[in-house]
Design a protein that fits this description.
alpha/beta, two-stranded antiparallel ribbon, 8 helices, 9 strands, binds S-adenosyl-L-homocysteine
Length: about 250
C-alpha cells in the first residue's frame, strides 16, 4: 500500500463544471511535457455528473436573497465523495481563502497531489466546505469568474517543483520567495541592448562577486517593492540587528 502510494505520480484531481477547460495551458511547455511523460497526472471531473434531478441542476438561488446562484452542497459533496482521495489535501479555490504562498506550493508539491474544487457563480454552499473540511485557497485579492484558472495557477506552481520537471533548474534555491527574497535581475546576450549594458560584474567570471551582487540586488528589490517580506527576513545572526537593504543599482 505504502509503496504503491509513493511510486504513484503526483496527481491533481479537479472538480469543475467545465472539465473541457483542462489541461488547457497545463498541456503546454514544461507542465505539458511532464504530463505527457507521466511525471504527473491530471484528472478533471465534471461536477454536473453528480447532479441527481432530472434537469441536472448544480446550483440554486442564495438563501437570504441576493444576486446570482450558489453551487449546491449535496451535488458537490457527492462529486467529492466519488473521488477516492484518501489523505490527499482537499482544497477549494476561493477569494476568501488563505493566500497561496510558495511555501504552501512546495508542501503540496511534496505530497501525493490535491483534490481541488472549483467554484462558479456566487460561490459554493458553506456547508460542503465545513462538512468535507475543504481548505480555502486564494490566489490573490481580486475576484475571478470561476475557480478553474485559480486551480491551474496552483497546479502549475506545484508541477514545476516536481522532481524531473525542470531538470537541473529545479533547485529553486535562487528563485523569488524561496528564501524570503524576490529574485535578482537576469540578463543574457546581446551584451549591449539599446545602449544598456549587462552589469560588468556578471561578465567578470568572479563567482563570489556575482553571488554577492545578486544577493545585494535581491535584498534591495525586496526592501523597495515588498516591505512586508523584507520586514519578515531573519535577523543577522551575530548582531541580532535587522539588515539594511543595499541601494538598487538596476531597474527603476
Ligand atoms: N461571491 C464570491 C466570489 C465568487 S467568484 C466572493 O465574493 O467571495 C466564483 C468562483 O471563482 C469562486 O467560488 C472561486 O472558486 C473562484 N475564485 C474567484 N476569485 C478567486 C481567487 N482570487 N482565488 C481563488 N479562487 C477564486
Amino acid at each position: 500500500m505504502t509503496s504503491d502510494l509513493s511510486s504513484a505520480p503526483w496527481r491533481a484531481t479537479v472538480l469543475t463544471l467545465f472539465p473541457e477547460m483542462f489541461p488547457g495551458p497545463l498541456g503546454i511547455s514544461l507542465a505539458g511535457k511532464a504530463l505527457a511523460s507521466g511525471l504527473w497526472e491530471l484528472e478533471a471531473r465534471d461536477i454536473r455528473a453528480s447532479a441527481t434531478d432530472k434537469h441536472r441542476s448544480v446550483d440554486d438561488t442564495p438563501a437570504g436573497g441576493g444576486p446570482g446562484m450558489v453551487l449546491r452542497a449535496d451535488v458537490l459533496a457527492a462529486a467529492i465523495d466519488a473521488v477516492d482521495a484518501g489523505d490527499r489535501p482537499r482544497l477549494v479555490m476561493s477569494p476568501r481563502g488563505r493566500p497561496l504562498t510558495q511555501a504552501r506550493v512546495a508542501e503540496l508539491a511534496a505530497g501525493a497531489g490535491p483534490l481541488i474544487v472549483c467554484g462558479r457563480f456566487e460561490g459554493i454552499d458553506q456547508r460542503v466546505i465545513d462538512a468535507r473540511r475543504l481548505e480555502e485557497v486564494s490566489i490573490g485579492d481580486y475576484v475571478l469568474s470561476g475557480g478553474e484558472i485559480a486551480a491551474m495557477t496552483l497546479i502549475d506552481a506545484c508541477v514545476r517543483l516536481l522532481p524531473g520537471v525542470m531538470g537541473k533548474l529545479a533547485s529553486g534555491t535562487d528563485e523569488s520567495f524561496s528564501d524570503g527574497l524576490l529574485e535578482y535581475p537576469q540578463y543574457t546576450r546581446p551584451q549591449v541592448f539599446e545602449g544598456r549594458e549587462i552589469p560588468d560584474v556578471l561578465i567578470s567570471g568572479d563567482h563570489a562577486r556575482v553571488a554577492k551582487w545578486r544577493l545585494a540586488e535581491a535584498e534591495a528589490l525586496t526592501a523597495a517593492r515588498r516591505p512586508e517580506l523584507w520586514a519578515a527576513r531573519p535577523k543577522v545572526p551575530e548582531s541580532g540587528k535587522k539588515r539594511k537593504p543595499p541601494k538598487i543599482t538596476t531597474g527603476e
